[in-house]
Amino acid sequence: MLIVPGDEDCRSAGSFFKNPLVSAAEADRIQELAQRRVPDKAMPRYPGEDGSIKLSAAWLGENAGFAKGHALGPVGISRKHTLAIVNRGGATANDVILLKMRCRRSVGCLGSETSSEPVFVGFDVEGKSLAS
Questions:
Q1: pTM surpassing 0.85?
Q2: pLDDT of 40-81, one tens digit each?
Q3: Which residues contact 39 (CB under 8 A, 6 or more apart)?
Q4: CB-based burial of residue 61 (10 Å sphere; 0-12 exposed, 13-18 middle, 19+ buried)?
Q5: Candidates 2.70.98.50, 3.40.50.720, 3.90.78.10, 3.30.479.30; correct CATH number of 8-108?
Q6: Cβ(16)–Cβ(116) under 8 Å?
Q7: Residue 68 has what pLDDT?
């Protein structure tokens, strides 16, 4: 993402969630669960390495309730990029972690897991402070 002065949708760590790589059987299972929740939207699938299937983290997030522009106080999902968590002004690292965890739980309801792309400094993978 480019830094554009005055554009709060550009204050992010970039793409926040990786596209999940799953087996074909797992992709079928996730697609079946997703179709129950969003029957009118086909889940994108792409060929991955060694016969795996790459799922769209953006599609999963949007259909789990975290569309572009979603906000949770001072932190939110970019209005331009579904995978970007942005600081709308005054957000703390804990605010970002809370939104990340809520997104992750909701995508889990569609049967898939997401992993984060940014490297967390001072937090473990689950967002717990390493200082305590």
A1: no
A2: 888 999 999 889 999 999 999 888 888 999 999 999 999 988
A3: none
A4: buried
A5: 3.90.78.10
A6: yes
A7: 93
